[in-house]
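Ops channel
N.P.: pipeline sanity check, posting one input/output pair.
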């Protein structure tokens, strides 16, 4: 691996590993391990770890290194409960701010989702679904709401990787496909409602999607 000297680059690598469960929830990792693996100095690693610590993705433990934030069924439930309170507000703001370029971007995400669905690519279906949620948060124009949903999205993705993907991989392909189909169709309807400016219907589909994911994840 090429040497990494930029704090942002080191931050992105470590964060992606946490979100994708390359570092397992609760795992202890020493600063020295990260420095050696990324072939960099301690400074960018230390700075990146401090940022991630502030974001709650890990905890710095003096003289030991860091512990990756634990993940539990209880935490997953709490994350989805918060999302079901926060994201309807983002939808309300987003619909008011929706312009022609935004509609085009939503249609592209909808098309991408349908393509991944046709390919039976479960991971990408879930990833694109989460991108849709984040884009709507961006359209809200509220930076605090956007940052909160972005952080919750990252935690949701960890839950998907750690619990749901492993669960679906153990299930019959027909069952996995049915889950994928249901969630893809909800997102298709959600985007349609957004574009048509139907706030109530958009929120209904949003809650249906989040409730379905919460149920599937916590039963995985």
């Amino acid at each position: 691996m090429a040497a990494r000297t930029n704090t942002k680059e080191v931050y992105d690598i470590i964060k992606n590993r946490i979100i994708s469960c390359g570092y397992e929830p609760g795992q202890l990792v020493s600063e020295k391990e990260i420095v050696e693996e990324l072939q960099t100095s301690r400074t960018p690693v230390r700075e990146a770890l401090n940022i991630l610590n502030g974001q709650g993705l890990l905890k710095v433990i003096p003289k030991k290194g860091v512990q990756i934030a634990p993940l539990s069924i209880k935490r997953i439930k709490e994350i989805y409960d918060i999302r079901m309170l926060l994201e309807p507000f983002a939808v309300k703001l987003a619909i008011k701010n929706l312009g022609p370029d935004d509609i085009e971007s939503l249609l592209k995400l909808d098309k991408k989702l349908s393509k991944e669905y046709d390919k039976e690519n479960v991971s990408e279906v879930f990833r694109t679904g989460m991108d849709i949620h984040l884009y709507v948060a961006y359209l809200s124009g509220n930076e605090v709401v956007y940052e909160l949903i972005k952080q919750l999205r990252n935690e949701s993705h960890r839950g998907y990787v750690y619990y749901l993907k492993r669960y679906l991989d153990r299930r019959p392909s027909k069952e996995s496909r049915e889950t994928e189909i249901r969630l893809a169709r909800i997102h298709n309807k959600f985007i349609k409602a957004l574009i048509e400016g139907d706030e109530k219907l958009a929120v209904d589909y949003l809650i249906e999607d989040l409730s379905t994911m919460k149920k599937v994840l916590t039963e995985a």
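N.P.: looks fine end to end. The mean pLDDT is 88.
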